[in-house]
Specification:
With 543 residues, the chain is an alpha/beta fold. The protein has a domain of 293 residues: 3-Layer(bba) Sandwich (FAD/NAD(P)-binding domain). Helix content is 29%, strand content 17%. It contains 14 helices and 20 strands. Helix 1 runs parallel beside helix 12. The longest helix is centred in the last third of the chain and has 21 residues. The radius of gyration is 23 Å and the shape is globular. The structure holds ligand NA7. Ligand NA7 binds next to helix 5.
Length: 543
């Protein structure tokens, strides 16, 4: 075990100082930081390359909804100066190329075991080591066990009867074939209208002979305003990126592209509210959600933005009946992830694109030739499931994790995830989650939140090793308080009003509770700093 910074590791073979699960943005940066400390680290990754989300989500139109100049690592000037983004919102292939650029530049791949899924992890109390097993039969052990498994990585195909009878091909947006799919001349059924459906449908419709979209919930969507980046804006950001990232960490969402207007809607003149929304809507991106301060706090305030958004959306669709079906009416705007689209609503003006409202015409089953809904068969040669993920907990619980005294994480979290700060869970010493449930994670720029967690975990491990401290584990009291706090903060917002994946509502039987911490990256970061400065208050440090 390395005991000081840059000390060479004394471990060998299958004994590591730290084992990390996942080689997306989180696992890559965690590996880099711990290796810099001289730790012997192994990463296990199910895919055959780095990238995580961006490795798996190769569906047509996949694109980040955070601007590329902010959606990159902010810890190294050298890295950012060696990379040039081409578009305001980067498409999946470009992000994956960037991740490979980083992995090669930092020589990360030699410590990643690809094509290997961790299946179980057991904490051995006498030795204080985590013992892991993989689907390839590997066994390895380490003092620290770090889940860098991402928040949206357990793709979910809904349990619809008859899928095995379907004679055509079917796909899930979250595990798309690597050589792509050509829909030319085919009839395609798309189930799901979240971000993945909204991004892919226009492109599928460009190729296919016919597209039938099955919509369960109409979502709020606004034009992304994607465009090529100019040389000037790239050059300007290069000189400020590292400073900008410090700033981003003090904001609510980890984004500096726009500011939240703190004025409440009632404090502004109605025409000023409208002007603010208009400017932000036209500019594209999530800025719209920051038009005034109480949008996520009261129904009355939210209705102003929701009405504005619906009017904008409606104007893009020619047929009034279809426009009505596409209008989100069952949740406040922003309580489900706002979608950024490129030509989504206009796609329904095309004669070869049909919309089926499964609230009125429920999907009954998949048949040999297509999808049966509301008593009618919709023939299709291919089905695309854009049906989302078992978010935030799915990938963590896919590993059978057993902590102290035989406590299984799956049992402990049966009624919903319980963490202290989204970083650790009582009963599981030296286990860290990167952007786990109970942290801002999916409500923020993920890379900013990832770096915040990785930096904190790295400092923590460094303090433990240099102080000869064997274990760190959240106390049940601190965890209870944090879980209660997350719930209290969420209850002050409108978020719990939507049947969203933030609430676990998209997975039948999953406990309903608001999983991310909605207090903001800045506030949360202050709490992290306080905890570390107070000798890891709320954690028990063991010999
Ligand atoms: P989402 O946002 O979870 O969207 C999944 C969509 O699939 C959504 O419209 C669901 O309707 C729909 N769905 C799920 N199950 C069914 C069934 N059984 N029948 C019909 N429709 C169904 O996932 P995405 O991949 O689009 O986006 C995930 C995140 O990635 C996104 O928020 C960004 O952060 C990036 P529902 O709304 O549950 O009624």
């Amino acid at each position: 075990m390395a005991t000081e910074k840059h000390a060479p590791s004394s471990t060998s073979g299958n004994d590591y100082d730290a084992i990390i699960v996942g080689a997306g943005f989180a696992g890559m940066y965690m590996l880099h930081r711990l290796r810099k400390q001289g730790l012997h680290v192994r990463v296990y990754e199910a895919g055959d390359g780095v990238g995580g989300t961006w490795y798996w989500n190769r569906y047509p139109g996949a694109r980040c909804d955070v601007e590329s100049l902010e959606y990159q690592y902010g810890f190294s000037d050298d890295l950012q100066r060696g990379w040039t983004w081409t578009e305001r919102y980067a498409a999946q292939p470009e992000i994956l190329r960037y991740q490979n650029y980083v992995a090669d530049k930092l020589d990360l791949k030699k410590d990643i075991r690809f094509n290997t899924r961790v299946t179980s992890a057991d904490y051995d109390t006498p030795s204080g080591l985590w013992q892991i097993e993989t689907d390839k039969g590997d066994r390895a052990q380490a003092r620290f066990f770090i889940m860098a498994t991402g928040c949206l990585s357990a793709a979910r195909v809904p349990d619809i009867a008859g899928l095995e009878d379907f004679k055509g091909k079917w796909y899930h947006t979250g595990s798309w074939p690597h050589d792509g799919v050509d829909f030319t001349g085919r009839r395609v059924a798309v189930i799901g209208t979240g971000s993945s459906g909204i991004q892919s449908i226009p492109i599928i419709a460009e190729q296919a002979d016919h597209v039938t979209v099955f919509q369960r919930t109409a979502n709020f969507t606004l034009p992304a305003g994607n465009r090529p980046l100019s040389e000037e804006e790239i050059a300007a950001r290069r000189t400020t990126l590292l400073e900008d990232r410090k700033h981003a960490r003090t904001t609510a969402g980890g984004i500096i592209a726009f500011e939240y207007n703190e004025a409440l809607s009632g404090e502004m003149m109605p025409e000023d509210v409208q002007r603010e929304m208009e400017t932000r809507w036209t500019g594209g991106g999530f800025a719209f959600l920051g038009s005034y301060g109480d949008m996520m706090a009261t129904t009355e305030a939210n209705d102003i933005a929701a009405d504005f958004a619906r009017a904008k959306m409606k104007a893009r669709v020619k047929e009034p009946e279809i426009a009505d079906t596409l209008m989100p009416n069952d949740h406040p705007v922003g309580t489900k992830r706002l979608c950024l689209d490129t030509g989504y609503l206009e796609t329904f003006n095309e004669p070869h694109v049909d919309l089926v409202n499964v609230r009125e015409l429920p999907i009954e089953r998949i048949a040999e030739k297509g999808v049966l809904a509301g008593g009618k068969e919709y023939e299709a040669d291919a089905i695309v499931f854009a049906t989302g993920f078992d978010a935030m907990t799915g990938a963590i619980l896919a590993v059978d994790i057993t902590g102290r005294d035989g406590l299984r994480l799956r049992d402990k979290w049966e009624a919903g995830p319980r963490t202290y700060l989204g970083l650790g869970s009582a009963g599981f010493p030296n286990l860290f989650f990167i952007t786990g449930p109970g942290s801002p994670s999916v409500l923020s720029n993920m890379i900013v939140s990832i770096e915040q967690h990785v930096d904190w975990i790295t400092d923590c491990i460094s303090r433990l090793t240099s102080g000869n401290i064997g274990t760190i584990e959240a106390t049940p009291e601190a965890e209870d308080e944090w879980v209660a706090h997350v719930n209290e903060v969420a209850a002050e917002t409108l978020y719990p009003q939507a049947n969203s994946w933030y609430m676990g509502a998209n997975v039948p039987g999953k406990p309903r509770l608001f999983m991310p911490y909605p207090g903001g990256v800045g506030v949360y970061g202050e709490k992290l700093d306080e905890v570390a400065a107070a000798d890891y208050e709320g954690f028990r440090l063991g010999a």
